Amino acid sequence: MGTKKTNKKTDKYAERLQKHHDELRWLYMELYGNDSMFAELCDNMYRFYQERKDELKNLDMQREEHPDWYKQNDMMGMMFYIDNFAGNMKGVEKKLDYIQECNVNYIHLMPFLDTVPGRSDGGYAVSDFRKVQDNLGTMEDLENLTASCHKKHINVCMDFVMNHTSEDHEWAKRARQGDGEYMSRYFFFHDYSVPAMYERTVPQVFPTTAPGNFTWLEDAGHFVMTTFYPYQWDLNYKNPRVFNEMMYNFLFLANKGIDIIRIDAVPYIWKELHTQCRNLRQVHTIVRMMRIISEIVCPGILLLGEVVMEPEKVVPYFGTVEKPECHMLYNVTTMATTWHTVATRNVRLLKKQLDIVNGLPKDYVFLNYLRCHDDIGWGLDYPELLKEGIGERSHKEYLNNYFQGYVGESNSRGELYNADPVTGDARFCATTASMCGIEKAGFEQDAQAMQKAIQLDVMLHAYMFMQSGIPVLYGGDEIGQVNDYSYKEDPNKAADSRYLHRGAMNWKLAENIADQTTVEGQMFARLGRLEQIRKQERVFVSNADTWTIETWDLSVLCIGRYFEGEKIIGLFNFSEYDKTAWINETDGDYIDLISGRTMQASGVDIPAYGFYYLKKING
Predict the structure, then answer these.
(1) Closest C-alpha among 45, 122, 110 to residue 81
(2) pLDDT tens per residue across span 449-493
(3) Rounded to whole angstroms, what are the CA distances from 559 to 341, 352, 423, 467, 530?
(4) Could you give the count of Cα atoms lying within 13 Å of 177 in the half-sphere of its Cβ?
(5) pTM above 0.70, yes or no
(6) Which residues belong to the active site?
(7) Cβ atoms of residues 403 and 394 within 8 Å
(8) Are 416 and 400 in contact (CB under 8 A)?
């Protein structure tokens, strides 16, 4: 019996390999022209397949039979740092019931692979791709956690940082000692002549905290390419050994039960002189090969690309229908435009942004969020804003001042990140609750202001759930957790204001989720109600028709969704004043899914920061 089972699965592997082999070989040879390295890659792919547990192989086959499994209306994400959320991996395992109570079935574990404190960039400087940070647990703990998650139908996402390694990685240590084999895995230069040529065309990522793209290593007598921070050395993917070894790391982690691999900094993977070293065609070749490799060895895996650009510009990273690349991408620009809308009470730019996203093919799945572990950069459509006389520099200054609480009758609290006094550019850090005014209202003990802040917070989540794609919460947002200023007391964190919104989960406050008299209880109950509606109503599947509707009020956004005969209209007031949405949907009665009230979808009065989910009643 066991032999037949094994043969069936081996046949499945052979079937997948036969389907994809020729394209994989063609792409590999186009990039590297190395038969022996390709043969080695294929041998190792089969080895990782053999090592893959039966439970994961069975899950792979289920997902192959239902390829749209992740596009359903029950998909709901949450991201968190393991130590901040629950101490370690065993702690997270103990909190899975709470995660389920949050209606979450997809958790993104922020970077947990081995790194060096003080030189970690929040975990994105990996020193060992096959070791968990000691304080978080072990690889065995990771396997136990993913197995427990799968029993509860929770998917697990992790970061795969393939653009660079830590300078403390074994490869980097050997390269630093002058070992040519390992130097060739990075970009080493004995003098500044070639780096100077790169610097003419390559933009800086962190011009204030980490200027330039190269670091001089005094002990090694060489420059090394470091696009992000001096302790993060860029990998040289022109070397097939780098690609092969990183794919082995990728498959090793997939075999630990990871469902979603988030590819960090995707556009930067390939470097070429006389270019910006961004979004080069070879990047797409590499991502396509990753997709093929996963479809042969572990087809239940999803690839999530971190591409920080406007939706229409990230589209190439989805690939094509015939040759797909990433399964999912982040909706970064819409997130930033959402906060612009909060600060201006003007939905015009957001409406245009949503129209662009809604016009893309339904196969494209975006992750939507109000905030993440990172700062908020104001990458808005400034040519569009300029038509209204709004300049880029002055508007960025207004937004940063607004969310610090200085202008525009703002109730927000937060801090700047990477402020550049020369360009006037800066990014912003804060939790959703603090940006909505919950921190300020709590500090001032203003009950009326608190209700207004909670209403804004809930409305923004209701709007996010209405967008096309998968919504993702940041852990703590479900209870309205505010900024944590204690990071300033930690010398390893004090210089990085992003730790302001990466505070530890306050489990004492989380005990209040059943108490409607508390902020936590109100937030948890109201978000829970929205999440239940989303799971119950099929129009929230990610491939539903989605569009915006003119409201004739600059403060009110209207989004329509339609799927298989069902229709829902969402109305969202981004103003602190009562408004009327002059929509005119005269196709019959609607029911407000929040209150249960039957009403017409025309001339709708919406209270300050209010919203409606209006479902068409089919007669």
Answers:
(1) 110
(2) 999 999 999 999 999 999 999 999 999 999 999 999 999 999 988
(3) 15, 12, 36, 8, 16
(4) 10
(5) yes
(6) 264, 306
(7) no
(8) yes
